[in-house]
Amino acid sequence: MRNLTAEAHRISLADLEATKRSYPEDVRADPRRETFTLATSIVRRFFGHQWYLDNVFQDAQHSRPDGYMRLDFTPGPEGELKTSRFLDFAENLFNLQHVEAFDDRVNQMRTGSIEATFAEFDFARFLYIHDIDFKFVVPTGIAGKDYDYRITYPDRRVACADAKCRLEATEMRAETITSVLNRARSKNLPADEPGAVFVKVPATWLEVTEIREGIAAAARGFLRNTRRVVSVVIYAVVVSELPERKMMLMRHRFHEYENPCHRFDMTKSWVLFRDYKVPEEWGGMPPKWHRILSHGFLMRQS
């Protein structure tokens, strides 16, 4: 693919087909290799070759340091997880590239926290596949204006949403959720508009009953003490290995807590996500999502 400036380049399906046709015959003859090479082309197109080398590429000797996006070709679940994460990320970039202020998030990930920005892209996908109208918000450094998404409801109500990520290495303590929510309220969300907070937690947190119940108590306790936040969404990406199909299944697990006593329009629900049965023919994702590299996500509420 041609190397264009961040603001100018966008990738079409025709671009992808042309790119695949340019690969050597031995690459095109191997579906797994072709898919991986295409994902590499997409990521390098948006982030550049040097970023790819610094954060994704791994050599045959595994001499490069481990990292959230660093590939791992060691046989087994960990290596497959890293590859699946990379393929999923490339597909996410392709599908979200037309969302307003997408380029800002690319630049943020290029120069800042990879895992935290990865979570922002991941939740953007969550909004997109649920047909929620949103845009990324460019950071200003000003308290009350540094949230991540501006969301528009079907009746044109607007909410400001901030995404927080508890890193994979974080100790499993539900009490930390309270501090995360308070930080979003006090530093990122405006005082005069409805706010929502999305918190991505490691999947293991939702597998432990005590932690899961503690998170729910923390979310409800936080909402009892604020009138400016209309909802809190706790979610995780759950990965399951399907060895018989030689693939990794990824799905969102989430729960949304609506504030019963906020100070905005109480005559309408501010719930963003509805748990619904995904039609079998979708294969886990809505038709508008281009599944060019993966088998998609399954969506369910915890």
Q: Could you give the topology of this structure?
A:
Layout: H1 13-21, H2 25-28, H3 31-47, H4 49-55, H5 77-96, H6 102-111, H7 114-129, E1 133-136, E2 149-152, E3 158-165, H8 175-188, E4 195-200, H9 203-207, H10 209-224, E5 229-242, E6 247-258, E7 297-301
Parallel strand pairs: 3-4, 4-5, 6-7
Antiparallel strand pairs: 1-2, 2-3, 5-6
Helix pairs in contact: 3-4, 3-5, 5-7, 6-7, 8-10
Describe the structure.
A hairpin with a 5-residue loop joins strand 2 and strand 3. A seven-stranded mixed β-sheet has the order 1-2-3-4-5-6-7, sandwiched between helices. The protein has 302 residues and is α/β, with parallel strands linked by helices. Helix content is 39%, strand content 18%. The N and C termini lie far apart (41 Å). It has helices at 13-21, 25-28, 31-47, 49-55, 77-96, 102-111, 114-129, 175-188, 203-207, 209-224, and strands at residues 133-136, 149-152, 158-165, 195-200, 229-242, 247-258, 297-301.
